[in-house]
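DM from R.C. (forwarded with permission)

"hey, sorry to bug you on a friday — could you get me a structure for this? deadline for the figure draft is monday and I only need the backbone to look sensible"
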Amino acid sequence: MSSTWIAAGCALYLALGTTWLGRIGPGYSALRQTLSELGAAGAPHARCANYGIFLPVGLGCTWLAWHAASFSAHRLLATALAAGYLGAVVWPLDNRRRPRQVMHLLCGGLEYLGGLGALFLLPAHATPATAIRWFALSLLLALQLPPRWLPAGLAQRLLEAILFSALILTA
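My reply, with the result:
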């Protein structure tokens, strides 16, 4: 199976799975809350989110990284996404346990900083516009703002869309 199809499958599976899970999760808002909150400790459908959505996406990205060229933006991007999603499975969001929370945030940081680094490694013609790179950086910085300033769920979904689009284009 081609890498493009696997990358597209991971993106589509993630989008459909989290949309479905977000709709059946009580009180969940895709605009205000992040994807991690679907799999957070104590969330109603955490096992489904972690093992049914995040794990397959993380494994798919791991496969893409393994089969990519030795050093490429595609490999860095796939590795970064794999770190984020597999890290969310191993260390789900948990505000009650500080070490788990720190590891979860570290894996998320690896995903977004590695993904952003991969975007900046791509040749200018490989992305729709250089502005996309700066928009992604702006979204990453905006995620650091308090929730009242920006809907974190919306910012994260836009950033994920950019990263998975780049993964598909570079496959």
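R.C.: lifesaver. The two ends are 12 Å apart (CA to CA).
me: no worries. The chain has six helices and no strands.
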